[in-house]
Design goal:
Distance between the termini: 39 Å
Number of helices: 0
Structural class: mainly beta
Oligomer: single chain
Order of helices and strands: EEEEEEEEEEE
Number of strands: 11
Length: 115
């Protein structure tokens, strides 16, 4: 079955860039009519969709984060990456990658923005 695993730094300093990778196993990120998403949940708040990249490589971003977000993929390694620039403490959250249509989620990774 398809499994997703996030990886990246747990601590980021303010103004720096966050880079997270989601490695997919059990299925290719380039096949099927799927979208591969990044979602986050700040402490005490609900889920926030960040953006997605489709199986064909098209990206879509949340309007509120679009100016700071980039999602890319490495098809050879079957993984996709989130970059979020100009991090602030308000970006502290658990970050998830997911194939939302099939309710397939990674376990999530805590990212804290602090100096």
């Amino acid at each position: 079955q398809v499994q997703l695993q996030e990886s990246g730094p747990g601590l980021v300093e303010p103004s720096q860039t966050l880079s997270l990778t989601c490695t997919v196993s059990g299925g290719s990120i380039t096949t099927g009519n799927y979208a591969w998403s990044w979602i986050r949940q700040p402490p005490g708040k609900g889920l926030e969709w960040i953006g997605r990249i489709t199986s064909s490589g098209v990206t879509y971003y949340s309007p509120s984060l679009k100016s700071r977000t980039s999602i890319s993929r490495d098809t050879a390694k079957n993984r996709f990456t989130l970059q979020l620039i100009s991090m602030t403490p308000e970006d502290t959250a658990v970050y998830y990658c997911a194939r939302v249509s099939d309710f397939i989620w990674g376990q999530g990774t805590q990212v804290t923005v602090s100096s």
